[in-house]
Amino acid sequence: MTHKVIQSKHYIKNIDFEYVETYSFQQESYYSETTRNTVMASWYDNRITDLMGNLNRSSKKISSFQRSGRDMIKLNHILETEIINLPSWMCLPIYRDAIVFYSKSGEIVSALNVCFECSYMEDDKGININADESTYGLLKSFLISKGHKIRS
After folding, report:
1. Rounded Cα–Cα distance for residues 13 and 134 (Å)
2. Angle at 57 (CA atoms; ends 135, 145), nearest 5 degrees
3. What is the residue-level pLDDT of the chain in tens, covering all 152 positions?
4. In the 3-class helix/strand/coil scheme, how is the chain assigned residue by residue?
5. Residue 34 pLDDT
6. Contacts of 2 (CB under 8 A, 6+ apart)
7. How far apart are CA 1 and CA 128, in angstroms?
8. FRET partner for 75 with CA separation of 20 to 30 A, picked from 15, 22, 66, 94?
9. Residues 102/17, Cβ–Cβ less than 8 Å
10. Which pLDDT belongs to residue 58?
């Protein structure tokens, strides 16, 4: 797999979708700090979707909203934040929150995996989504307002 990187503002502008669902997943103890760097798991075990586009079995839908709604305007604003300070932690991400973008017919168009502990985002194709350090705080507040229980 080649390592690709795009900015969050380009990511959000290039997705053609109808609605969004937010998910919380991997909250159980298996994904704890002690297993972060020691457990061998497949690449897709740590993401919201697998190779076939199926949702992670631990996922729980928290909220949903339409592309044309106020929540999407807020999310766009957050992801369009200019990059001034790019975080660079030296840990492996454990994604616990995700934003999944769906077509009108209900098919997954893209999924954004988010690790607030590492300040790291990656889409379902393995592309690193670069964002400003402040984006993570804004995104965290937004998801908490939607009902996510985010630890960090």
Report:
1. 19
2. 35
3. 457 999 999 999 999 999 999 999 987 654 555 455 555 554 446 899 988 889 998 899 999 999 999 999 999 999 999 999 888 877 788 899 999 999 999 999 999 999 999 999 999 999 999 999 999 999 999 999 999 998 76
4. CCCCEEEHHHHHHCCCCCEEEEEECCCCHHHCHHHHCCCCCCHHHHCCECCCCCECCCCEEEEEEECCCHHHHHHHHHHCCCCCCCCCCCCCCCCCEEEEEECCCCCEEEEEEEECCCCEEEECCCCEEECCHHHHHHHHHHHHHCCCCCCC
5. 47
6. none
7. 12
8. 94
9. yes
10. 87
Is residue 42 exposed (0-12), middle (13-18) or buried (19+ Cβ within 10 Å)? exposed
- Look up residue 145 and give its two tokens: 């307002």
- The edge-to-edge listing of strands for the beta sheet with 120-123 is 5-7, 128-130, 120-123, 108-115, 97-102, 19-24, 60-66
Q: Is the pTM of this model over 0.90?
A: no
Phi, psi of 58 (to 5 degrees): -90, 0
Residue 1 pLDDT = 47
CA distance 148 to 36: 22
Q: Check if the beta carbon of residue 12 is closer than 8 Å to that of residue 135.
A: no
